[in-house]
Design goal:
The strands form three sheets. The protein has a six-stranded mixed beta sheet with strand order 3-6-7-8-9-10, sandwiched between helices. A four-stranded antiparallel beta sheet has the order 2-1-5-4, covered by helices on one side. Strands 11-12 form a two-stranded antiparallel sheet. Helices cover about 25% and strands about 25% of the residues. The protein is globular and about 60 Å long. It is built from six helices and twelve strands. By secondary structure, it is an alpha+beta fold. A hairpin with a 7-residue loop joins strand 11 and strand 12.
Length: about 220
């Protein structure tokens, strides 16, 4: 959580509200943090998000849905396959959520799985500066789908992430996007019975049937 010193020094905190009453939100806790729009990277990185997955967008916290067991099974399958390729050739590092990626100043996203080259790695526990391949597993709900299909697609392209995989459990599809200039083009839309391939890492191939079966 944000340290006492950081809280005391913040000029963005609201005035203290009256004491919370039974049945009301715990206002005293909420008022220990910056207002939406006033969050800095330092505030965000000090905020304990392990129980509340979140991302930093234009000074605001965007809270993400808690992953389900099937979501985590898909994540584990993908991370293992990607790690096999990256480790075999010592290409860099594969990381998984919850772990933020710094796309640019004030924009930190949290891909489900991502690969970073060695030169992107930073000392200590600071977020890596960008990524080379990211994978998002869509969660149910219009807001969640819009975030991954539209907002994050734009963000990752703007941050020059070379490849973006979108795994859609509802539609049973894997969409692989490859950066072409400043926007993504569709490398392929893969369904059960096919093998999803990566232009960036040719040895990274996913049997789509096995992938979705792994969620069961």
């Amino acid at each position: 959580m944000i340290g006492r010193g950081a809280i005391a020094e913040s000029s963005n905190l609201l005035e203290r509200p009256p004491r919370s009453q039974r049945g009301e939100p715990v206002w005293e806790v909420a008022y220990c943090y910056p207002r939406q729009g006033d969050w800095s990277e330092a505030d965000f990185l000090e905020f304990e998000t392990s129980n509340f997955p979140a991302e930093l967008v234009d000074g605001c916290l965007e809270f993400l849905p808690m992953p389900t067991p099937s979501h985590q099974r898909l994540l584990r399958y993908l991370a293992r396959r990607l790690e096999d390729v990256v480790a075999a050739e010592s290409l860099g590092e594969v990381l998984c959520a919850p772990c933020p990626v710094r796309l640019w100043a004030g924009r930190l996203r949290e891909p489900d799985v991502f690969y970073v080259r060695h030169d992107r790695q930073v000392e200590g526990d600071k977020p890596p500066n960008g990524a080379d391949l990211v994978i998002e597993i869509l969660s149910p709900g219009a807001t969640n789908r819009e975030r991954d299909l539209v907002a994050k697609r734009n963000d990752y392209a703007q941050a020059s992430v070379a490849e973006y995989w979108i795994v859609d459990p509802d539609e049973q599809t894997v969409i692989v996007l490859s950066l072409d200039g400043q926007a993504y083009r569709i490398h392929g839309e893969f369904r059960p019975g096919t093998v999803a391939t990566s232009p960036l890492l040719p040895k990274f191939q996913i049997n789509v049937t096995e992938l979705f079966e792994s969620a069961q």
